[in-house]
Design goal:
Helix content is 78%, strand content 0%. It is mainly α and 78 residues long. It is globular and about 30 Å long.
Length: 78
Amino acid sequence: MVADEYEEDKENEIMNDNSPTSSAAGIMYYYSIVKGLGYSKKNFAKACKVSEVTIIKWYKLINAYHSFITTHKNNIFS
């Protein structure tokens, strides 16, 4: 129970540390990598006006859940 609350707080903290634009840029970059679309960090940084460092930070965060996302994609995207 405490662990669940900690994880929820941690997740909320991550979301609060960044603007929605930063989050979106990182998510789009992750998707681009997974789908092999060929867009670079620089493309997203320029289009979204966020730093490449921020995009990589979000990419790493999302990529840590890659296995979960791919395993549950039918439930997530239905």
